[in-house]
Design brief:
The protein is of the alpha/beta class. It is 45% helix and 18% strand. The chain has two domains: 89 residues, SCP2 sterol-binding domain (Nonspecific Lipid-transfer Protein, Chain A), CATH 3.30.1050; 285 residues, Rossmann fold.
Length: 400
């Protein structure tokens, strides 16, 4: 069977996406039902043969380099990953070994974690400010209504987490992976708590420090350029981690949870917001190679096991999966509006790479097995949390 015939036979089994393929011989074939939503140009058979050796890595690379052209709805194209014949996504045993070795080189050891974080988060504060919300939240928001603005949804996320933490005047709070300081500043201003935020990104640290000083919060908020493993014998009344556990790595999950247990006083409350997979397995290799080196998305079972070993008792789990899809839709819209500006900052390949990243993430939250969990827990058994979940929604909350 020829390469073209093999592709054609597999693609004819897809019905929920309508699209057109322009083959290297000039032949155009439409698949699915209805008007085509996108067009893929495959300019050369040798390129296609190369792609089929590892589609999940090489197709995004070919899109970024321009070797494969896509016109139309890119996110609808990415739905093919969830409907195409799985044998087209196969990876040879030798290729799997190569990918495992590459992952080992990107492990989140103490020195390795800093390098991995720099790769993504130190792209420049101005880059992230161009398309994130005003508070520079780079994690899934919380939409009380689908029509909420991104700014409102991100504020609601911070408020929702603070409610779950049961913050009170004078408490000491540890924010692991504090980003640009959105949670730390919010918690200090709204609840008069003392917050220590830690980050490995020098550029995030700079912005945090500036925002603390501009807000007159030096007495309440401290930010350190520090790895979580470097925390000494400090005790906190609350611990929060928003979108950071994804960067810990599978082999360090136990170390991370043990450190959280050491920092959180007995009976106290913590909240994790973490992306995770329904089933275990590595992150798509293109993401770990080009976007998030060292990333690992744990299952709920893996998180539960390591938390239990560290003496952390799960009180509540809320899956905000659709909220992250809505967040990504807003990010994509904002990113595309600033695509020309971002291209001048970097180049056209960078814009195509981040477009692929954001669209593929959105597709995975809508159709794949990505989840966004908010996990409320205590260090050991505790009576600091109410008997029911009503407190998360019924108590008076400050309005922006």
């Amino acid at each position: 069977m020829s390469l073209k015939s093999e592709l054609d036979g597999s693609l004819r089994n897809i019905f929920d996406v309508s699209f057109t393929i322009e083959y290297w011989d000039g032949d155009r074939v439409s698949y699915g039902n209805g008007h085509p939503e996108f067009l893929i140009r495959l300019p050369d058979a040798s390129i296609v043969k190369h792609l089929l050796g590892d589609v999940l890595l090489r197709f995004p690379e070919a899109y970024v380099s321009g070797d494969v052209e896509v016109q139309g709805n890119l996110q609808r194209l990415l739905r093919l990953c969830y409907g195409v014949d799985k044998h087209l996504l196969r990876v040879s045993p030798a290729r799997k070994i190569f990918l495992r070795l590459a992952a080992l080189r990107r492990r989140n050891s103490l020195p390795g974690a800093s390098v991995n974080i720099l790769h993504h988060y130190d792209l420049g504060n101005e880059f992230f400010k161009e398309w994130l919300d005003d508070d520079i939240n780079y994690s899934g928001a919380y939409f009380e209504h689908k029509g909420d603005s991104l700014e409102a949804a991100q504020y609601q996320k911070l408020r929702h987490i603070c409610t779950k933490l049961r913050l009170g005047h004078g408490q000491r709070v540890l924010d692991i992976g504090c980003g640009w300081g959105a949670f730390a500043l919010h918690a200090a201003k709204e609840h008069n708590v003392r917050v220590l935020g830690i980050t490995l990104s020098a550029q995030q640290h700079t912005v945090c420090q500036t925002r603390i000083e501009q807000g007159g919060l030096n007495d309440l908020v401290e930010v350190r350029l520090q790895d979580y493993r470097e925390l000494e014998n400090e005790q906190f009344d609350r611990v929060v981690s928003i979108g950071m556990i994804e960067h810990v790595g599978k082999s360090y999950l136990g170390t991370y949870m043990t450190k959280v247990g050491q920092c959180l006083r007995r009976g106290a409350v913590g909240v994790f917001q973490v992306m995770g997979k329904t089933q275990g397995g590595p992150v798509t290799p293109w993401i770990t190679k080009h976007i998030f080196p060292g990333m690992y998305l744990p299952t709920l079972g893996e998180l539960s096991t390591e938390m239990t070993r560290a003496g952390l008792c799960i009180h509540d789990v809320e899956n905000l999966r659709p909220h992250y899809a809505l967040t990504l839709e807003d990010w994509i819209e904002r990113f595309e509006k600033k695509a020309d500006v971002i291209e001048r900052m970097f180049d056209v390949r960078f814009v195509r790479m981040w477009r692929m990243y954001l669209q593929s993430a959105c597709a995975a939250f809508k159709l794949g097995e990505l989840n966004l969990w908010q996990i409320t827990f205590t260090h050991g058994f505790s009576d600091e949390l109410p008997l029911t979940r009503r407190y998360m929604y019924e108590e008076p909350r400050p309005q922006r």
